[in-house]
User: Fold this.
Amino acid sequence: MVPKTYNQWRECIVNDCGIVLSKEFAQGRVSVLSKMTHPETQRFLKIYGPEHLKNTLSWFSHVANS
Assistant:
């Protein structure tokens, strides 16, 4: 399932993937996923599409700035 809300996404990242959602980790993800030409961003877009990228960047930014 592709998360549609912040809470679903957080549950997926933290519980399903076992990732510690720290500010530093979130800042790193924002840095990479904000670069549209980065290979990882291109792969993300191909798999999940632009709407999910926009949501994911928003959610990582929320963590990075909290």
